[in-house]
Amino acid sequence: TLTTNQMSAVRLVAIGRWPDTLRNFKVDGTTYDPSDGKIHDWPTLNMDDNLQMIAKIAALCNDASIAHSEHQYVATGMPTEAALKVLVEKMGLPGGYTPSLDSSDLLRCCQWWNNDAKRVGTLEFDRTRKSMGVIVKKAETGKNLLLVKGAVENLLERSAYIQLLDGSVVLLDEGAKALVLSTLREMSGSALRCLGFAYKEDLADFATYDGEEHPAHKYLLDPAYYSSIESNLIFCGFVGLRDPPREEVHKAIEDCRAAGIRVMVITGDNKETAEAICREIGVFGPSENISSKSFAGKEFMALPDKKKLLRQTGGLLFSRAEPKHKQEIVRLLKEDGEVVAMTGDGVNDAPALKLADIGIAMGITGTEVAKEASDMVLADDNFSTIVSAVGEGRSIYNNMKAFIRYMISSNIGEVPSIFLTSAFGIPEGLIPVQLLWVNLVTDGPPATALGFNPPDKDIMKKPPRRSDDSLITPWILFRYMVIGLYVGIATVGIFIIWYTHGSFLGIDLASDGHTLVSYSQLSNWGQCPSWEGFNVSSFTAGARTFNFDENPCDYFQGGKIKATTLSLSVLVSIEMFNSLNALSEDGSLLSMPPWVNPWLLLAMSVSFGLHFLILYVPFLTQIFGIVPLSFNEWLLVVAVAFPVVLIDEVLKFVGRCLTARARKQLGKRKEE
């Protein structure tokens, strides 16, 4: 996930004339194309016995293949083994031999080695001994040979001899072993993955092995015997392979760090190699002290207080890790209340994938067992895709909250708009059919469009929420109540303003000729029949004229049609403006303007269009009990509705301050 998974050999180390001398060959090329690059200072016509044995092991102890497809070379099997086959092709064949195969065969040299010795048995790779072996029968002599490749340190532990340049075999002394390990550390520190090569000629029970019918075959069925079979080996060299980090991984790890996600690398690689790669991709800083952050798997499992180490901030590395180590690390993190996502591709990764909160299997290199045990399959095997998925998940969660925030704050506002009319004793401002229209029609399009909100700009800079966090926090509920209260006040307030004010905020409201009353009269409108000398002049609304000569008190019932229309228009307008507030939970409209979600602007247009439809189509105005509004009256509607945006901007600013303060306090606690 962190690297391209396209290996290439960059350095070949062979044994010299003496046990304490090594030969280094630089290898060019970064693809699976055998003709991509060459080996520098290579003895093309005089390949010595030591180099021939390395080529033989790399070719025969190998299950990969390479094909040319659509202008590129594609590997099938393990990338490390594919890189070894490419290396064999670059090494060529021993002097005097030319392959008698079709020149179109990509792996001509590998095929030549396969013809030279036939595989008759396989010792499959396992993570305990960290090696793979094959038993081959030489075509010329019929003699069996064991060829082994694997982790250099492990092969050295099981090797008793070393092959020199001329093919002679001598005892592997401590000096030669120290020289190999020193070179290994230097190559691992350059982020190279190293594979060693060894062989064995004296095979005891397997000297005549020729298949499943042989008596020794029972030992091949039990991996516990493999280490004893692969003992007293003859070490002959090793190769450094490079798996370059993906270009986008460094940025993805930075995003993880900013988002409060800790990245822990658990790998089977050599410790020095893993540390070099982790520094290269940004898990560790270039000069960061990682003595307490990098452990071998067995070393970590032997520590007394493992949970304390896992609580450290920043990245962690576990190298030479076995499957049981991965499972134990996941278990410890979950016990500590962490939400754990685990990636893996092998059969042995399945238990840890199953145990993790989110098991992520590799779609390209992953085994079917790993995919079945996981919760999610990564189609491109790319770590940055996981980070993108986290951002997308946060965005979906935020959009769900935006929908809820919009619907609750809008509907809460309708409650005080009804309650306040009763509390103030004024006529009802909204009738049931109008409330149904707002809830079922005008609210729907903006609420739906909020599901298309783009992610907040700082979505990957916020700390992760806990799995048990409530959807509506006390602060969010307080915001709902404040916005809802304003919706109620504005809806009822404009009703009162029309009855009691000839102008408001410099906007003339008396041009329709309606009669102004005092607030006392409006709140006691039920006593109107007892008022002496109360008269009301007629007023116009659109093409209609309302006259109250016969019953002036009907001014508070039949005459409230204009005030009701203003209340309904304010309620619709506030809810449209409130949908803009729902674009982001804490982000200002200055940083996340309305046009970032064109679907919301379209939905607002649809809702306003529907409202204009019932306002200006005559038969619909009668159904909904409303009248057309003039330009001045629309100015008043906007003036009363727009402050909902300003109020929520202030609340968002307070929310951002509270979040920053909480984050700062959390950082201090972690430092302590």
UniProtKB/TrEMBL annotation:
Gene this protein is translated from: CA6
Any Pfam family: Cation_ATPase
Protein name (record): P-type ATPase
Domain Cation-transporting P-type ATPase C-terminal: 429-654
Compartment(s) of residence: Membrane
Residue ranges of the TM segments: 477-499, 599-619, 634-654
Originating organism: Hordeum vulgare
Coiled coil: none
Sorted UniProt keywords: ATP-binding, Membrane, Nucleotide-binding, Translocase, Transmembrane, Transmembrane helix
Domain of life of the organism encoding this protein: Eukaryota
Main location: membrane
NCBIfam families, sorted: ATPase_P-type
One GO CC term, this protein: membrane
